[in-house]
């Protein structure tokens, strides 16, 4: 235990086995404590022991599912490299301009195993990409960005809640489901029909994730969704790569999201092929190939003991198994109305939900010839969606473009787009108990001169912490004992009946009908937003349909945001110890404790909202607002020096942005891009919060142009006189409108108050006051 080479475990890694059939509960296979420093190669050794151990016991493993973290995907790749052989699945290219899809399925000891990503984690990753302040997603003639969704959430009769866009929880399953629901698409199409970019974005990724989550869709339609998504994303990437001023790390989905898409598409197609060729008599329920069971077990453990240790977890396993079985048998457990509509509530587990289950549809598997037909239809639908964005598919296909590999993506700021902190098979161990023990020991050894009242309060806190520890042990002892042999046999008998019932219900399966008309028209001219809404209504889950905001539940629910009792005791300990240290100067650990728990005022950044002061919670967030203010002032000073050094017009010095005339979304101005000056309209603004890991937060106005980290604009090229083109010349032959995601120094100046802007449908933007143009050009 005293070996310094052994790292302290801070997380629990969990492996669970799921028989992917209705009403069959998952099984806890292994759980180990791991440290934050555990490498992929070290994790792989544990993983090999588990998977190969199952295979040696003739347990037919057909998938390995995990969440979307970089470590987990790297582990899947490393494990794939160990395969003795592989099955190469090829979906031929349906036409020129689209690459064939090659999917290797690794085979271990004669068992093909599909590498799958959790689809609900993926949905949150796509939500985070849209909400990121580090990118502007360009979709042909349109752009998709956070401000659009933020404004929609505050509109009357919106299907979204305010909390879905403010102080948002990046792990909120309900919020992600609401965002990609048919109701949200319909609301945007009615209220904001010009926001085609965000409509198509929500449609594509909502459909992709529901290819896993839908309970009754036949597998031919699932493959159509997967291939349509693949072809659409590839064509959109070609478009971004073609335009010189568009960079993948700023104008396309993140590298991580792009990688997750490949895992989702390849994983589900692999599962369909494995079932078709090796287990044709067993229906495929793709939503059960996920890491959701791991998350559910951790959630149940937190309900028993909020801050558990590894020992606590081991002792809770018998009770957890009983709770998991109860959830598997109660298909309505996850469908309670108030739980589906909850806000900032983290995980919402639906893997045991069998609402609208159709085992007959889930038991039909298309042949290779049928998959080729599906690929043709998917390509036609992808063309229609690309054309809806104003990109002509034939022009795109005719270009000689070599797509960059995934490693060519820029990594900067991509952490904002991930579903951070949502490791499905990892859970933080209770480090608060360690902190309490440290504080108690420090108090005993500090030698402070305490008053009687201070001593009494510290003794009360010590007793309270010991009482919590005793309460945890009492709760564990009150849990169910190990399952006896008779009960265990009863469990096995019930599970066998559930498996047999699922297999019997798939009998008399009709043949696949590939001649059913598609809701998405293959004729580019006939595609409408209404057809996309109709398809989302057909494919979305029961959870998505019932999680939206309605008039009956518009009042905000009071959320439980209280800290755990241990956190409160720790806070009180720090407060008391600080008060004792105020009586004199201390050294060593005493000084460190006083410094770490200092209360520092937070100053609002220039142009940002005023924030109240709060005590430091950790080193990363200390003085965050003050840092942002300092950085903004430095940037403003640097901008002034450059303008004065090169004797530029004084209007560029602060961009005509002042406290009396702040810049707003919708304002026009001039930008400097690719050695040219363009007219631009502001569509979104972001200001980076202070601190080492500060995020780019959306703002709607600022009085200091240098306080902005990024400005998203649609820009126009000068044509003649006071006229500007919507499609700059370098966009030829695509002729789409142009967008830019710029640092604040590239925004030269806003137009004066006497400038008049008139937007027209024609390719020319006109007209700006001639006098104003002359003044600006002279500047």
From TrEMBL:
UniProt-annotated stretches for the region Disordered: 582-633
Compositional bias annotation for Polar residues: 582-599, 607-620
Annotated Low complexity bias: 621-633
Protein name: Uncharacterized protein
């Amino acid at each position: 235990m005293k070996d310094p080479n052994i790292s302290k475990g801070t997380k629990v890694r969990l492996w669970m086995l799921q028989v992917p059939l209705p009403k069959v509960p998952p099984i806890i296979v292994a759980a180990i404590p791991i440290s934050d420093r555990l490498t992929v190669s070290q994790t792989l050794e544990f993983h090999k022991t588990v998977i190969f151990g199952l295979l040696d016991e003739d347990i037919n493993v057909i998938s390995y599912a995990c969440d979307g973290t970089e470590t987990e995907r790297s582990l899947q790749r490393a494990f794939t490299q160990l395969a003795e052989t592989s099955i190469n699945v090829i979906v031929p290219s349906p036409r020129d301009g689209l690459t064939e899809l090659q999917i290797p399925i690794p085979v271990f000891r004669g068992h093909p195993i599909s590498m799958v990503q959790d689809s609900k984690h993926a949905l949150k990753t796509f939500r985070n990409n849209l909400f990121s302040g580090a990118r502007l997603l360009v979709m042909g003639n349109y752009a998709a960005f956070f401000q659009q969704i933020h404004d929609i959430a505050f509109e009357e009769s919106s299907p979204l809640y305010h909390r879905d866009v403010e102080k948002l929880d990046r792990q909120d399953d309900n919020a992600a489901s609401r965002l990609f629901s048919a109701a949200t698409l319909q609301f945007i199409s009615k209220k904001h029909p010009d926001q085609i970019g965000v409509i198509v974005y929500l449609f594509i990724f909502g459909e992709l994730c529901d290819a896993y989550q839908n309970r009754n869709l036949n597998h031919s339609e699932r493959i159509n969704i997967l291939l349509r998504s693949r072809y659409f994303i590839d064509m959109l990437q070609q478009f971004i790569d073609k335009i010189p001023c568009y960079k993948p790390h700023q104008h396309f989905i993140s590298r991580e999201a792009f990688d997750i898409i490949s895992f989702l598409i390849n994983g589900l197609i692999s599962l369909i092929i494995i079932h078709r060729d090796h287990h044709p008599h067993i229906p495929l329920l793709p939503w059960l190939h996920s890491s959701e069971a791991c998350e559910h077990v951790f959630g149940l453990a937190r309900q028993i003991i909020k801050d558990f240790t590894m020992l606590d977890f081991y002792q809770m396993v018998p009770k957890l198994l009983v709770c998991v079985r109860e959830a598997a048998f109660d298909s309505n457990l996850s469908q309670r109305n108030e739980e589906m509509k909850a806000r900032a509530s983290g995980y919402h587990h639906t893997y045991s939900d069998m609402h609208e289950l159709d085992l007959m549809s889930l038991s039909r598997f298309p042949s290779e010839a049928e998959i080729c037909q599906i690929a043709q239809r998917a390509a036609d639908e992808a063309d229609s969606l690309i054309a809806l964005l104003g990109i002509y598919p034939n022009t795109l296909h005719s270009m000689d473009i070599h797509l960059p590999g995934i490693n060519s993506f820029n990594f900067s700021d991509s952490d904002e787009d991930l579903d951070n902190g949502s490791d499905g098979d990892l859970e933080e161990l209770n480090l608060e108990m360690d902190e309490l023990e440290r504080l108690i020991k420090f108090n005993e050894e500090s030698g402070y001169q305490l008053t009687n009242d201070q001593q009494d309060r510290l003794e009360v806190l010590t007793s309270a912490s010991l009482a919590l520890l005793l309460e945890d042990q009492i709760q564990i002892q009150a849990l169910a004992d190990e399952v006896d042999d008779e009960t265990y046999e009863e469990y096995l008998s019930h599970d066998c009946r559930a498996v047999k019932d699922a297999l019997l219900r798939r009998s008399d399966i009709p043949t696949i009908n590939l001649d059913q008309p598609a809701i998405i028209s293959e004729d580019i001219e006939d595609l409408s937003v209404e057809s996309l809404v109709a398809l989302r209504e057909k494919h979305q889950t029961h959870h998505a349909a019932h999680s939206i905001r309605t008039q009956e539940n518009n009042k905000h629910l009071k959320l439980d945001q209280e800290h755990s009792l241990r956190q409160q005791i720790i806070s009180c300990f720090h407060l008391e110890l600080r008060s004792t240290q105020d009586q004199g100067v201390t050294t060593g650990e005493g000084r460190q404790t006083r410094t770490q728990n200092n209360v520092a005022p937070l100053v609002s950044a220039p142009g940002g909202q005023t924030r109240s002061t709060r005590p430091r919670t950790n080193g990363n967030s200390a003085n965050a607002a003050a840092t942002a203010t300092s950085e903004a002032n430095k940037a403003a000073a640097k901008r002034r020096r450059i303008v004065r050094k090169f004797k530029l017009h004084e209007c560029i010095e602060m961009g005509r942005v002042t406290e009396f005339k702040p810049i707003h979304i919708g304002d026009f101005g001039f930008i400097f891009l690719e050695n040219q000056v363009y007219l631009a309209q502001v569509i979104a603004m972001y200001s980076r919060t202070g601190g080492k890991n500060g995020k780019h937060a959306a703002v709607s106005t600022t009085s200091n142009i240098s306080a902005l980290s990024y400005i998203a604009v649609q820009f126009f090229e000068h044509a003649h006189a006071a006229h500007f083109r919507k499609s700059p010349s370098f966009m030829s032959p695509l002729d789409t409108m142009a967008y830019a995601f710029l640092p604040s120094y590239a925004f030269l100046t806003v137009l004066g108050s006497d400038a008049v802007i008139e937007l027209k449908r024609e390719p020319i933007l006109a007209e700006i006051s001639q006098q104003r143009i002359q003044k600006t050009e002279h500047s």
